[in-house]
Structure formats: C-alpha cells, structure tokens
Design goal:
Layout: E1 11-13, H1 28-35, E2 40-47, E3 50-54, E4 62-65, H2 76-85, H3 87-102, H4 114-134, H5 141-156
Helix pairs in contact: 4-5
C-alpha cells in the first residue's frame, strides 16, 4: 500500500511482517485480533511513515509501515449475515416494520382491467343470447353487434 492511499479508520488485513519496532510474533494488536478470530485491523493513527494499527477503532496500538499492509476487502455476504444477526439491527427493522403496519391504510378497490371486463361481457352476451334462443325470443341486433366488436377487440389484443 502507498502511504498517501491510507486513511484513519481504514481496515487492513492482519500484517504478515513488521518492519519497525520488533517482531510480528510479539505484536499485541495482531495477537489480540487473532484471539477475537478477527482477520483485519484498523488504522488508528499516522506518524510520518509509521501507521498505528489496532484491533478495534480505539486509540493506541502497534506501529507498522505501509509496505507491511494490504487493503482489507469485505466479504459482502458475511457483512449481510452479520447485519441480519445483529440484535440492534433486528430491533430497528422490527420497529420500522411495526410503524409501517400501524400507518398502513388499504387503498380503495379500483377498476377491473378492461380486457377482463370485455371477456366477462362477451360471456354475459353469449349467455343472454342462449337464454333468448332457448325460448324462441328475438335476439337484439345491438347484442350481436357488441359481441362482434368485443371478440374482434379481444383477438386484436391477442387474448
């Protein structure tokens, strides 16, 4: 990593080498992170070319050089899993859901889609024509014209 790319609060992989102030095996912050099953450290300070790392975002820690560090890339699936298992986030989501349910009002019923209306109307006309034909009653021309218009319209709309 380059020193100019580094920002306070940034996560880095646990270093494999320590080029300043002692051996990596004796680094308190590296051992603390490993004890927490953590695979990253935070950059908590900068003094000239030395970078202060810690296993949490607290002050203090251990010094490393930029050449000892690699950027830490978050595994998004793990981040999401951690978030969904976090009791604080679960409580926040529950409250938001509860509030949304309390303020929810059912919208009024709208219109039946025109194509459905037309299908139903064609079926009603067929049934009426059949009833009139069964009792030998004259079928109104308006019904036949409407039936023909609707069936043509439905064929044109490919239903």
């Amino acid at each position: 990593m380059k020193i100019e790319d580094i920002k306070i609060g940034m996560k880095v992989k646990i270093p494999k080498t320590k080029s300043v102030e002692g051996n990596i095996l004796y680094s308190v912050v590296v051992n603390a992170a490993k004890a927490k099953n953590q695979d990253f450290l935070f950059i908590t300070g900068k003094v000239k070319q030395r970078l202060l790392l810690n296993s949490s975002n607290d002050v203090g820690g251990d010094y490393f050089l930029a050449k000892d560090l690699e950027p830490y890339e978050e595994d998004i699936a793990k981040v999401i899993e951690d978030m969904t298992n976090d009791p604080v986030i679960k409580e926040m989501w529950y409250r938001e859901y509860k509030d949304s349910q309390e303020n929810y009002t059912q919208p009024p019923i709208g219109l039946t889609p025109k194509v459905i209306h037309n299908i139903n109307r064609v079926n009603e006309i067929k049934a009426a024509i059949t009833r009139y034909a069964e009792v030998d009653k004259e079928i109104p021309i308006k019904w036949i014209e409407e039936y023909n218009e609707l069936t043509k319209s439905l064929k044109d709309s490919k239903l």
